[in-house]
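Same chain as my last thread, 443 residues:
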Amino acid sequence: MAWDHDENQCPLAAIDRRLEDVHRFWHQAERAYFEPDEFRVAIQAAIQTARQVSFVLQKNKALIPDFEEWYKGWQAKLAAIPLMRWMVEARNQIEKQGDLEAHSFVSAEIVASHLDEGPKIQVPATLSDAPLALVRSIPDSLVGQHIKKDGVLRIRRRWIENSLPDTELLDAVATAYGHLSGLVRSAHEQMGLVAPVSTNVNTGQQFAAGDQEGRLPCMIGHEDARTLDVWLATGNPLEFEVLQKKLGREEIMAKGPKLEKRYGINPSTMYSDSGKIHDHARSLFAAARRMFEKDGYHITIVILLRNGKPIDFRELRPIEHGHKFMMMRTLAQQAQKVGADAVVMIGETWSAPVNPANPYMRAVDSPDRKEFLTAIAVSKDGDPIHLSAEILRDGKKFTLTDTIEHTNGAHFAFAPLYEVWKRPVPDHWGELPKGTDGVWEAG
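reply #2:
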């Protein structure tokens, strides 16, 4: 990412530069994650420079109308955030006492659910056999069998500072950067100026300071480079192939007539004019029905939306059951990167009654399973919606029953999205218990 500003036009260019410097030092620390000395220098420079943003802002207070009243509100807001208080204390320690007490750790957790409920450990990075001890602690029970069959051991290296034991250092500074970019944006608005813009040098996408809750997309998901996922059933690394394809306007326009000829669907009307997520889900599900009735199957697709408009479209192809746990976490990370505030998932699913004797039985393994075409939409605000139609097959013939609509709960698969949206995880997650996820069991 690069920060664009014009010194000749922006009176607050000195502040913009400090914010740019925080961003630059952050990426230096990211690149030096496995080099202790280089990481220490870069992350401390980022913390010190972050503090300079407010210092330089105060030195330019004569430029900002009603500065005292405006800044008083921001001081109270930032002082109420524990992380921002830590940033002040960390900067004071660096400049007055010496280096931060940062240590490299290995964190390991077992992922066998869409919820973050598996066992976790964090140990010094030198104790390389600790994750194996975590695996050996898996009980020999129904839940243990489920974990060993579908679970993933996720191992990450993390830098932790003594006085901030629950937050990884890069995440801490990235989040602080987000709060400061909101301050900088507000300062520009107070003067009637346009906020400085950041540009992703890889994609060309631009974000004004304070967008994305301030945390830039390039500062999200950095843990991927220091994470190893191991499939417990085989002991082999778990990796996904990601294929990306960008369609030009001409190519998209060429697909429209083909879609309309085969399915009778006009692409321009697949989304609702209202822009509301529930209406989008209903309109998209109606199109999915038309496609299924023509083809007899429907792939699993996910659409990310922001402000009622689609911004990301992808197909999911999980091979193993445990892949879904990791795919949904990756999807949540992507939603955070692009600022998506709603998600629609459409595809074939299995559903089955709860088996009290085997609560971890998958719906696809139940003799009482039923097959459905479904669309589920969740959003950052507002209630989820679940649309479904049972699939009835008779040899090569297939039909769909009438659409049934539910708005009485979300589903476990979307728990990672609720986490990144900072929404409370609902007490009621649909009609199926934690152990069964027939609401999203790829057909």
